[in-house]
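Hey team,

Filing this mostly as a record. A colleague (T.K.) asked me to run one chain through the structure pipeline before their review meeting, and I want the input and output archived in the tracker in case anyone asks later how it was produced. No errors, nothing strange. Just documentation.

Input sequence:
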Amino acid sequence: MVGYGLAGEVATLTLDDGKANALSLAMAQGIAAGLNRAAAEAKVVVIRGRPGVLCGGFDLKVIRSGDAAARSAMVEAGMALLERLYLLPQPLVIACTGHAVAAGGLMLLAGDVRIGVEGDFRLGLNETAIGLSLPGFGVELARERLLPTVLTEATLLARLYAPADAAQVGYLDRAVAVEAFDGAVAEAAAGLLRLDGAAFAATKRRLREGSLARK
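Output structure:
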């Protein structure tokens, strides 16, 4: 479900559940395990999806199953993971390989460098369209990373964006053609290796810990 690769000092976690890459409890645990390994082996972390999808959000089958304990465990693990990504000591590249909605949109907002592939994909926070409320930390992520002028439409109105538009409003830093995507991700990761790890981690925490305090 979560592949792990190491090239030099860059660790790549590849999400692939064969379907929508839902942020299930197992997926969250798999990503967390990959981050644990990367903490000891890598200076930069890349998270990417399978072709066509980064993450389709929390598993709606669990959300709507009526099993309150399973739902709570999944959501708590997922939100804890997103907070961990947001404060990850290493630079984090999110390589958006396709659709990224709901928790997938939050994953984009938690990254340091976000590169998306162009195509007929949708990115964003559609919680209010599928009967869910955006968690407090999700609101803070959106408030911090998205343009203020789109905050209402992107959260309350559940607007989803094509990759090029997502780069304009703050979900992505840039969207590139499919043939240039892997090279752009590799170039971004290589560029981050030049940063001092301790200085990066300390500055990132100072920059972002306020958002966690307001959640």
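Quick notes for T.K.: The first strand starts at residue 2 and ends at 7. Residues 68-86 form the longest helix (19 residues).
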